[in-house]
Amino acid sequence: MHPILFKFGSFTIYTYGFFVFLGVLFGYFFCLKQAKRENINKSVFSDIIFWTLIFSFLGARVFYIFADFENFLLNPLEILLSRSGFVFYGGVVFGIIALYALAKLHKINFFKLSDIIVSGVPLAHAFGRLGCFSYGCCYGRPTDSFLGVLFPKDSPAGFAGVRVIPTQLIEALSLFLLFLALIFLRKRKKFDGQLLAFYLIFYSIIRFIIEFLRGDPRGSVFFLSLSQFISVILMVFGIFLHFWLRLRKQQEKTNKTI
User: How many angstroms separate the CA atoms of 45 and 57, rounded?
Assistant: First the structure.
């Protein structure tokens, strides 16, 4: 609820952008530390992170345009130049595709690389949701509960002048907990790709539930919101990926003993 962090004359630092920057920064250095443990070259890893982020932000914007296509046709420049207007799942999909291509280019095991990067994603995403709260986007349904937050009238969440559920903070807390869970699992994983599968499954569950509390327009597919629909697909894919990778690992062990 504090959209502008600092203002020096005509130069403005927006709180939303500041939190996104912090999230990317902390997520990058956390992942870099894991990459060093796996003996991945720092410059190569930084290059992979850079291009994965570029494609992730592009995907997040593309999915947003798809979800609100009618409004985009009416106000294309406003949406393209807006500080908000991202669908996180678009970033996940485009990011994974870019990461796979970059892993092949640099001849690095994709699943090992994805485990490193995905362990830092919830941390970066959590900071991003704090940015959403400061801007007033990604807000929840109206509520009379003590948890309700009244946003400024000039913010996306405050136009109706009623208290809403702070879904941004709920998701940020959930993401921090998911981040801690991935750290716990990292030292105990049985095969490369397990963290990726774990993330896809449990973030999908978190997002599916939080979508019931969201009050902003997000598009829909049948009786589900667009994000819930994508959550179901990614959760099923994550479950399949986990069992497939585990089976592959067991087969490798069996072949070694023969």
Answer: 18
CA nearest neighbour of 169 among 148, 186, 194: 148
Q: What total number of domains does the chain contain?
A: 1
Structural domain range at position 167: 4-257
For residues 205 and 6, what is the distance between their CA atoms, to the nearest angstrom?
36
Cα separation of 149 and 1, whole Å?
9
For the entire predicted model, the pTM comes to: 0.90
Q: pLDDT digit string (tens) for 163-220? A: 999 999 999 999 999 999 999 999 899 999 999 999 999 999 999 999 999 998 877 8
